[in-house]
Specification:
Bound molecules: heme C
CATH class: Mainly Alpha
Shape: globular
Structural class: mainly alpha
Helix content: 40-55%
Number of strands: 0
Number of domains: 1
Order of helices and strands: HHHHHHH
Radius of gyration: 27 Å
Largest sheet: none
CATH architecture: Up-down Bundle
Strand content: under 5%
Number of helices: 7
CATH topology: Four Helix Bundle (Hemerythrin (Met), subunit A)
Amino acid sequence: MKSLRWLMVMLPFLFVACAAPEPPAPPAAPAAKAYGNLLQLMRAIPFPHSNVIFDTQTKDPEGAEKPTAKATLVYSLGDSDVYAGWAAVENSALAISETANLLTIPRKCASGVDAPVDREDWKMYVAGLAAAGEAAYAAAQTKNLDKMLEVSETVTLACSACHDVYRDRDETMRCVPPPADGAPAAAPEAK
Ligand code: HEC
């Protein structure tokens, strides 16, 4: 009987303890992950966005050439060009810098070889791309076509610095680090 009385005293407390469970932990933010291979990423983001920048070498995105300017073609839907003009060039410049972030995420190249994201030279090319995008953003804000001409070269050089080493070679050798001693690199094991 004594133990039953104890239970009756304790029951309300047990109930309270059950009724107020710990709030569930919020879901963890998804870790950065690659959704495409490097070839798909290159064609999806830096290719069209660098073309918006390069197009300003011959066309003023808000001048007479506006209807056929890439800034209009890429950023318009039907008759609406709400995102076009110099704002579009700014946004494409930012897309170039954002691409640098994506180039730090481990992913495969089209050949199946891992993109060498941990290598120091790769990181240097990625930093160069981020800086080129920032320079293009600053130039687009001035709406000055001469500055766009200059910065187009900066962007081109940032792309080609990496392409010279990791892209512009036999397709099976793309993404394979160059041999340090000048000896020909062995063909990679595709994973
Ligand atoms: C850090 C290195 C790096 C940088 C910076 C870089 N790329 Fe690439 N890019 C590559 C590699 C490597 C490939 C080949 C990918 C593959 O085969 O999977 C490639 C492929 C491409 C392709 C596809 C070529 C084809 O065969 O169809 C395009 C287009 C491209 N890059 C555009 C650009 C542009 C434009 C920029 C600059 C705004 C740029 N890339 C900056 C490494 C880079």
